[in-house]
UniProtKB/TrEMBL annotation:
Gene3D superfamilies: 3.40.50.360
Sorted UniProt keywords: Electron transport, Flavoprotein, FMN, Transport
Keyword Transport applies: yes
Function: Low-potential electron donor to a number of redox enzymes.
Sequence ranges assigned to domain Flavodoxin-like in this UniProt record: 1-133
Protein name: Flavodoxin
Phylogenetic lineage: Bacteria, Bacillati, Bacillota, Bacilli, Bacillales
Domain of life (superkingdom): Bacteria
Cofactor (UniProt): FMN
Family: Belongs to the flavodoxin family.
Keyword Transferase in annotation: no
Length: 142
């Protein structure tokens, strides 16, 4: 809605590309859980809506994700929220737990941003991309 998660994603992609990882970016509204079958590595950006909810546009995807076997896949999550609410950026935590429950090996490092990401937060996202690149190469034996 605000572009904050997209800005974060752009920085994560930078970190991945700097480490020679091919990237395909999809908006959740243009994706389905079935699309995940063709990928070995999954990186999700999600913002938290209201008092700790997934955004409406993520709900169908999330429901379908509940039935996926993600064994052998590596994943990571990042997102933003608003500390004015009781639960800060927990949509990412909800998604991370789902990925783990579906069998994915999830990078335990994440980036959570309060509102609009600034220079430091975008650098943290870029580092997350670099760390995810190392994480997936580790799984590939590289």
């Amino acid at each position: 809605m605000t572009g904050n998660t997209r800005d974060m994603a752009d920085s994560v992609v930078e970190g991945l590309l700097e480490h020679f990882v091919a990237v395909e970016v999809k908006e959740v509204t243009d994706a389905s859980a079935a699309d995940l079958d063709v990928y070995d590595n999954l990186l999700f950006g999600v913002y938290t809506w209201g008092d700790g909810d997934l955004p409406d546009e993520f709900l169908d995807f999330y429901d379908d994700l509940q039935a996926k076997d993600l064994s052998g896949k590596r994943a990571a999550v990042f997102g933003c929220g608003d500390t004015a609410y009781r639960y800060f950026a927990v949509a990412g935590d909800i998604l991370q737990e789902c990925l783990e429950n579906r069998g994915a090996l999830v990078l335990q490092r994440t980036v959570k941003v309060d509102g609009c990401p600034g220079r430091q937060e975008l650098e943290a996202c870029k580092r997350l991309g670099a760390e995810f690149a190392a994480f997936i190469k580790q799984g590939a034996g590289a």
